[in-house]
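Sat 14:20. Reprocessing the chain from the morning session after the first attempt stalled halfway. Input below, unchanged.
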Amino acid sequence: MKNFNKRCWIPVLVFAISMVFGMYANAATSKTMENITVTINSCVIAGANINVTASGVVPTTTDGIYYLFELKPYETAVGARKDYCAAAPAAQTAVFTTSLDYNTTASKLYSRFVVTILQKGTYIPVSNAMYILNPEVVATKTTNYPMKSKKGLTADWRYSSELSRLGTGFASYELDVSRFFTGGGLNYTYNGKTYSFNIKVVQEYDGVCTRLASEGCNVIMIIKNAYNRAALDMIAPGGRSAGNNCYAFNVDEQVPTEKLEALLSFLANRYSGTMGTIHTWVIGNEVNTSKPWHYMGNVTAEMLAAHYAREFRVCYNAIKSQNAGARVFISIDQRWNYEDGTRGQFAAREFLDLFASYIQINGNIDWGLSFHPYPVPLYNCTFWKLPAEYERMNVIDHTDDSKFVSPLNTDVVTNHMMLPTMLAPNGSMRNIIISEMGFTSHNKSIATDELTQAAAIVYSYKLIANNPFIQGIVYHRQVDHASEIAGDGIAGGIRTETGTKYAYGVFANMDKGNSSEYTDFALPIIGAASWAELGLD
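Finished this time. Tokens:
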């Protein structure tokens, strides 16, 4: 693995950041961002209250007072409102205190706050908007984050008993929020309101999470939102048309937003102990591609990133307020700087930079990154050899301008995450995982077989495990899936429904001390005499 050194340059996100300021200035008032002279620096829970600290140039006011307004996730403007929640003298530094009202109908856990001044009877926003930075302080649970091995699998619950024998450190699974609203039977009271979730779906995940936990795995749950006629309100209003794989969450309207808050709070509380633990929450899947993986209609990259940042914030606060030890991740695909012109599909780096800037302006939190460095193209099991047409395009290199990210150049992503604009609130590297990556054992376009698949798994693991900033590597999948074979011609499992593949034993042993007898078979397939030749002792 090459070039883990920190870059000396910083991309200037002038456009993205100006978009953020403009969006939140215009979302709160009809005035332009010229009014933004104050910066909210901190917004934290302190006991039963929220303390907000702001500083900056004092604008002209009619009464010398700053007024703090609360905006719910689905609210876009202060408008004609007069119900400010706190006030303080207009000064270079101002401190506001307002009640948290936790777990009541007046809860401010998910709100953002903006400083205003009174001019001619109207409250005019003069600051950025900021959300609460520390929702974890109200959590009653704090689970550990197991890290027994970097290797993981997209798990099949029917074969969950194999996971510990395989030495699996991470087990990935999917959860569709819409299914919980297609019936009732299990009541949950949250923020003064009672919700009824589909009890059969809850019982299904009780079984899944318990089984995966019993195998000692760090459980990764991919939170998705399907097209479901019984729960269309959970989809963002502009995206309610069938035909896409997954959809953006509705944080634009009050009732669906509150339903999402309640469900994620319920799940984070339930799966933090006795029913097994979801340690890693991934909000959406490959969300830089609105079509087909996070659909919300005809949108620009800026619109998608801004909306997703609000979705993420709701989910983050719901999860962290229940389990302080949980980690919450965004998900991007392998097209780092590549766009083929398909409407709604955006380069991963562009989306990531926009998302990070929106989060930063509205209160930096400890989000993590999951990405999918699949081969190029997806069915190219011999990822170390590009097909001629891709070779001519020069799609993979070790610069930040690389078109794609594959197992060969994951350093592109981790180097980018070293930039000051990307660091965690404490100044450290963020948590980074590969939540999906796989290799097929047969394909019509590029010849392959079980031995080549196993070699790809070994080689990719050695490459990526050598990157110290990637904490987990999930191979997709444990068992072949018929729809993937029929659709993309990818049989990515290390086993079939009826038996195991050569990759099964290789996966189980490739990270052990005596692994050479299970890994050296791959060298002639790759075209190398030794792992040392590849820099992978």
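Confidence is low (pLDDT under 50) at residues 1-33.
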